[in-house]
Known about the structure:
By secondary structure, the protein is mainly α. It has helices at residues 23-28, 33-39, 48-51, 58-74, 92-101, 106-110, 113-121, 128-143, 156-173, 218-226, 243-256, 260-266, 272-298, 301-330; strands at 10-15, 41-46, 83-86, 148-149, 181-182. Helix 11 (243-256) packs across helix 13.
Amino acid sequence: MENTNEKKNVVLSLVQASGTPTLGNYLGAFKNWHNMAAENDCIFGVADLHAITVRSEPQDLRRRSIEMYAMLLALGLDPEKNIVFLQSHVTDHALLAWVLNCYTAFGEASRMTQFKDKSQRHADNVNVGLFTYPILMAADILLYGADKVPVGDDQKQHLELARDIAERFNGIYGDVFKIPEPYIGKKGARILSLQEPEKKMSKSDPNVKSFISLADEPNVIAKKIKSAVTDSEARVYYGENKAGINNLMNIYSCCTGLDFDAIEKQFEGKGYGDFKSAVAEAVVEELRPVQEEYKRILSDKAYIEKCAKEGAEKASYLAHKTMRKVMKKVGFYQG
Ligand code: TRP
């Protein structure tokens, strides 16, 4: 990592490799990563240990992990300046998670709403890993002394738990962990489903027409946007009861930089067909550089291997420093 005199914040995030991210993830968060990476010391990883809380075929886990790793690089994280790694390559995550398990109350973990949701959705495989998932996440964060963690709404409660565990541990042993804060970047857009524009766009939506994946080809993107739900008014403006059009305007605005007034003017007297064609074209152009970079990186396995190895080395070094401190404080014999 770059070590200049000015002290940059450590921004840390791990992403789950459970399917290709969507246009919503891109416009809501990733689009700003270039800026975030320039202004901070970023540590980003693929949460492959978290991934096995849900069963998958070994070759799928491997493929998805590599794809997500390539995606992190394609999205603008520089493996020279930032740390980009796979969680399972740094064994201290699992060790710290175990230690922190013993400093987390059962009741506290039971209150995690994502656990309650997930155990209903995966009723056939409610494993203990699913329950302790947020504690592994706390370990991810605390190992690196992260100052800031970019989190979506669904992860806020987990970050709060990480803070509580860190404060409890520090209360007993002194200042071991940095207390992490949420990273508030430039506010990203909230992109909604193309089919049910009351809900967020989600890659796990069973209706594939409802989301645009970052891996979708231009013709697929165009098709999905053409079949997006609108209304019967056939006039492009941002208004009440126009959730579908509002969402498309929002997408168009993010891709072109035009505000809603300008968009309204541009499509005065035109129908939804013209508007949708323009939105599709703008989205295709917006995603093109990332998609090209993603394909380029993914086809270069030697490069991925080299970056992942270096990322693991840099991450391990930092993680191990924290881990040694923790082991000593708790009272493990270190010789
Ligand atoms: N639980 C996060 C999610 O599903 C992924 C994650 C794992 C994470 N470890 C993390 C996010 C550490 C931020 C920091 O999105």
